[in-house]
């Protein structure tokens, strides 16, 4: 029924005969839009720099022996720590 020509033609025709759109975006919708936009841009930013810094972190761990500040050697059992069990008295 609809060919690929129709899918491309209809938006093109709509753009040629565009009219002024009178629209109002209220403050609630605008703030929501800005919030979502900031979150999406922040996620893209963090993902981009996370991928860029990954080889640097791997190289740093290889140079320093794989330990970072605050890390302790061995498992919790080897250090003499006891693992806490979940509480059974939850009703």
Summarize the structure.
With 91 residues, the chain is mostly helical.
Tag the structure with descriptive keywords.
91 residues; mainly alpha; 0% strand
Explain the overall architecture.
- With 91 residues, the protein is mainly α.
- The protein has a domain at 25-61.
- Helices cover 56% and strands 0% of the residues.
- The protein is built from 2 helices and no strands.
- It has helices at 4-16, 27-64.
- The radius of gyration is 28 Å and the shape is elongated.
- It starts with a helix and ends in a 27-residue tail after the last helix.
- The mean pLDDT is 77.
> If you average the pLDDT, what whole number results?
77
Write down how many β-strands occur, each being a DSSP E stretch of 2 or more residues.
0
Number of DSSP helical runs: 2
Helix content: 55-70%
Distance between the termini: 61 Å
Which consecutive residue ranges, at least 5 long each, have pLDDT under 50? none
Q: How is this fold's topology laid out?
A:
Layout: H1 4-16, H2 27-64
């Amino acid at each position: 029924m609809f060919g690929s020509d129709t899918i491309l033609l209809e938006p093109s025709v709509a753009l040629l005969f565009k009219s002024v759109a009178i629209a109002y975006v209220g403050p609630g919708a605008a703030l929501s839009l800005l919030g979502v936009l900031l979150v999406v841009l922040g996620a893209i930013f963090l993902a981009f720099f996370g991928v860029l810094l990954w080889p640097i972190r791997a190289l740093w761990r290889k140079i320093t022996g794989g330990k970072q500040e605050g890390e302790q050697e061995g498992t919790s059992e080897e250090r003499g720590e006891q693992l806490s069990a979940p509480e059974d008295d939850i009703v």
